[in-house]
């Protein structure tokens, strides 16, 4: 498994997989190195996209691992890889969120993320906001 920043040739894969980003924002995110691509034998098997909350706090917006690779530890490796990148850039905390009706909240909590609040949008499940101090990164 290899984790790399997305490049222009990854555009179609990102467009196919990530239904939560407007297509006009994909290329700028690629250019800013805000999308990571996970590859196995040079084949894309997942991605992770991030941005910045309040323009100053790294916020993981999306992580996707192809179905057959889930439960193998790849998601954990990608999150730790991203956390280390953010730590190297001088950030002390990262954030993410997940819907209260999704199992991802348990994944993030196992990785040391803590509940920090929630967002309530009309006709949608509760969005749980999670944070993690990078000084507490697990070394494995």
UniProtKB/TrEMBL annotation:
<dbReference type="InterPro" id="IPR000182">
    <property type="entry name" value="GNAT_dom"/>
</dbReference>
<dbReference type="InterPro" id="IPR052829">
    <property type="entry name" value="N-acetyltransferase_domain"/>
</dbReference>
<dbReference type="Pfam" id="PF00583">
    <property type="entry name" value="Acetyltransf_1"/>
</dbReference>
<feature type="domain" description="N-acetyltransferase">
    <location>
        <begin position="1"/>
        <end position="135"/>
    </location>
</feature>
<protein>
    <submittedName>
        <fullName>GNAT family N-acetyltransferase</fullName>
    </submittedName>
</protein>
<keyword id="KW-0808">Transferase</keyword>
<dbReference type="GO" id="GO:0016747">
    <property type="term" value="F:acyltransferase activity, transferring groups other than amino-acyl groups"/>
</dbReference>
<dbReference type="InterPro" id="IPR016181">
    <property type="entry name" value="Acyl_CoA_acyltransferase"/>
</dbReference>
